[in-house]
Amino acid sequence: MLKIENLHAQIEDKSILKGLNLEVKAGEIHAIMGPNGAGKSTLASVIAGKEEYEMTAGSMELNGEDISELAPEERAHAGVFLSFQYPVEIPGVTVTNFVKTSINESRKAQGLEDMPAKEMLQKIREKSELLEIDRKFLSRSLNEGFSGGEKKRNEIFQMAMLEPKLAILDETDSGLDIDALRIVSNGVNKLKSKDNAVIVITHYQRLLNYITPDFVHVLHDGKIVKTGDASLALELEAKGYDWIKEEVNG
Amino acid sequence: MELKDKLISSYVAFENGVDINSDIHEIRSKALQNFEDLGFPTKKLEAWKYTSLNAVLKEDYSIFPKAETAIELADVKKYFIHDIDTYKIVFIDGKYSSFLSETTHDNMDICLLSSALTKPKYKAVIENYFNKIAKQDNLTSLNTAFANEGAYIYIPKNVEVEKPIQIINFTTGAENATMLQPRNLIVAERNSHVQIIERHQSLTDNAALTNSVTEIFVDTHANVDYYKIQNDNINASLVDNTFVEQQKEGICSVHTFSFGGNITRNNLNFYQKGEHIDSILKGITIIEGKQHVDHHTLVHHIEPNCESHQDYKGIYSDRSTGVFNGKVIVEKEAQKTNAYQQNNNVLISDKATINAKPQLEIFADDVKCSHGCTIGQLDDQALFYMQQRGIPKKEANALLMYAFANTVLESVKIPEVKKRITNIIADKLGVDIGFDL
Hints:
The structure holds two protein chains of two kinds. Chain A has one domain (2-184, 202-249): P-loop containing nucleotide triphosphate hydrolases (Rossmann fold), CATH 3.40.50.300. By secondary structure, chain A is of the alpha/beta class. Chain A is built from eight helices and twelve strands. In chain A, strand 1 (2-11) and strand 2 (14-24) form a beta hairpin. Chain B is α/β, with parallel strands linked by helices. Chain A binds chain B through residues 48-52, 71-73, 75-77, 80-82, 84, 87-94, 97-98, 101-103, 105-106, 109, 141, 158, 162, and chain B through 379-382, 384-393, 395-396, 399-400, 402-407, 433, 436-437.
């Protein structure tokens, strides 16, 4: 599904990603872990197409198509979803209307008509139940005054509505209490299928107790320096990241 | 000939059409003298520091349209709020159009100032209210000097007007350049309720200059909602002078939507003459090109326990310029005043300018006065977030701007007006999103 080769990316002349390779196949869950400043969030932003980041070398393909030149919305239409570490507050736009606009813009890009109101409502009802979201919450301004946990839950709600091919969860566990973590993880697991893929970016192993990865990658200084299975995450949790750094440098 | 000289020298011709022995004409003559002394405002005046009328005043305006021009309803229907039933007072080049209007004398008077000024039936109201709160400044004086036609709205006590009233001034451009000076008088007696929509619309590219004066009296426990839709074409300029006097427990809101025109200057003045009054002043400005919109507001808190709420949002593109000068005076007696003022601006281009000046003069010691003023750009993070969710940049921009302005729209009480404003905004931003937020 996603194939990244020798990816180099920089922001304002500061090089962050330095030759990253990653292949994610349909049906897989990949975890990307690493110390602060390793480039985890940058990788998420670069895949999503944030303009501030300049891709200086390498390639990035989604289902065999080069997406490196596409605008963020075009990547979204192609099926890329990024759950933000810090979701943005947009006063004046309700959750429901934002999601409606979002879905219908994607449909428009695919040459489809707007989703019929009845179908939209049905879907909103279904997905909000899945994520145990109070209906009142949906008529509030997007992320405005939401707690950290509510923001993250709202991200996964949008993911559920948009049904992306590739979902990247950037530090989705931060700010979540144990109940919210369970609800969010449960949501992600239910949305998971053999046709889509998930990249979980996280600093801690905690989330991976709920969302079991097929692969765990360690990102360090802009490169993936180690890949293993779910047990690697446990090892990192126990031993920290220093040994990886030593292994790489030594 | 300079416009000032032209106006003064044509006064004799104006006097031919009015009763020069009336008390009203006494008021007019004094006002003319006042204008003659003061002349047009220049940038040397503090209140006109950022707004120059020089270029606009250079046009050779026709002051009295020579011929009556008929217009077809089908051609101008789009300028009306036409999806609901309304009263209408319509003028074409300053002349009343009975064809396009729908007035009434049934239990209230929704008609013409020209007849109110001359008929004995209205004498008492005119004596009590005409030119009582209009300032004696240069442009208001100029309007008063030529005051003869406009809307006259008198709502007796306890009357709730069942449908909104539209006041529309069309300029046909039959002359090369047209100057109009409409004069409106609105009196809402005790416990009455009325909603008014005002619009100035030029129908050609010929220059138009409107110097309008509106006096609004809101008696005890009366409620007046006033909506100004300013979306005129690029060669039309407007100076709007509006004065509101409120009595005890009166509520008055004025929403000003400034989307078009060449130079638009809004002088909006509220005087609170009783306790427990609420004054609401809101505005959305979205302009581009070289357009200029200037909001000068004044809220004069004279009595205790009153409130005022100001919320002005501005979005400026290209080389457009904006001014917000919000003055709040709280007199020594006006304890427990709650005065709120918010002015937020977004500059879309590096060449756009906003001059924002909150001005608070507080003489009482037990009051709550807050003001906030921001000037910024659209949030790049928010744009990326929306794009990531599949909303194209242009639509994301529009949605952000619409959301930014939405606090002002929320308080619009006529759904059709809200819908119209929303459509104008979508049209201006070049998007086709049904902003149903």
